[in-house]
Amino acid sequence: MRAFLRIEQRGALATVTLNRPKVRNALNSELSTALTRTFHRLAGKARVVVLRGEGPAFCAGADIEEMQRLTEADFDTQRAQAMALQQMFQAIGNFPGVTIARVHGAAIGGGAGLAAVCDIAIAAEEAFFAFSEVRIGLIPATIAPWVVQKVGLGTARALFVTGERITATEALRIGLVQQVAMPNALDEAIERKVEAILQCGPEAIAAVKRLLLHLQGFSPATFPMAETADITVFYLIERRMSAEAREGFRAFLEKRRPSFHETLP
Asked: Which Gene Ontology molecular-function terms are recorded (predicted)?
């Protein structure tokens, strides 16, 4: 399993590389399980994780050969594979630090889902995306919640029912990615983003990610405002009372860097 992933740590930054370049880093059961275990293991050990792909593509989605075999499998086998994939996305989505997808080349199906589940996606200008499952009679079921969170239901619907390819520029416009860079400037753009993140309180980042999960699906028209107030007030008070916030306030008043600021070695 380790051969499918390469993991490097540089201070508070971990880089996780999908390492199946011959199949454009297609996601099979072994790779999905390895990613799940890796993100669980990195929780608390890395403040930022950059997810990237080896070779000419970020990730071409599900492993077609494995998917073809599964069409003949029984229900329990099908369910185990689907749950492993779901657990992988859950592990990335619930990671307490910041996740950044470094996207180049193709990000298809589950590969586009990896861009969606990460907190931030930064794409090379030549990258392209597609949710092409319907073109082979499948649907992007496991990744759908994460894509809808990023781009909204209406845009996800249009992408899912056509399977059409979109450019990095279009992905930026709809919110699937948050930044586009020239291919030779992609790593520099990611480094700048990592440095900015390391100036923030890691506990505050984890807390705001939990808050956003709590407010998932919130609509002022349908969500009880009293319940919303309870959630947001709790998080605000919890942060104000934290040692991290006290350190941040003291550092601001004393015109110094707070102790949680880090720089890359």
From this structure: methylglutaconyl-CoA hydratase activity
CB 171 within 8 A of CB 138: no
Domain total in the chain:
2
Domain stop point among 197, 212, 242: 197
Same domain (yes/no): 86, 73? yes
> In the predicted model, what is the mean pLDDT of residues 129-154?
96
Those residues whose C-beta lies under 8 Å from the C-beta of residue 236, and which sit 6 or more positions away, are: none
Size of the chain in residues:
265
- Terminal alpha carbon distance of the chain: 29
Q: Active-site positions?
A: 133
Element (H, E) at 209: helix 202-214
- 176 phi and psi angles, rounded to 5 deg: -70, -35
Contacts of 126 (CB under 8 A, 6+ apart): 104, 105, 168, 183
Q: Which residue segment(s) compose the domain that 173 sits in?
A: 2-197
Whether this prediction's pTM lies above 0.90 is answered by yes
pLDDT the model gives residue 217: 67
Comparing 211 with 216, the larger pLDDT belongs to 211
pLDDT for 223 beyond 80: no
For the cut 70, the answer to whether the pLDDT of residue 222 exceeds it is no
**Is 29 a domain residue?**
yes
Confidence of residue 224 (pLDDT cuts 50, 70, 90): low
Alpha-carbon span 166 to 219, nearest angstrom: 29
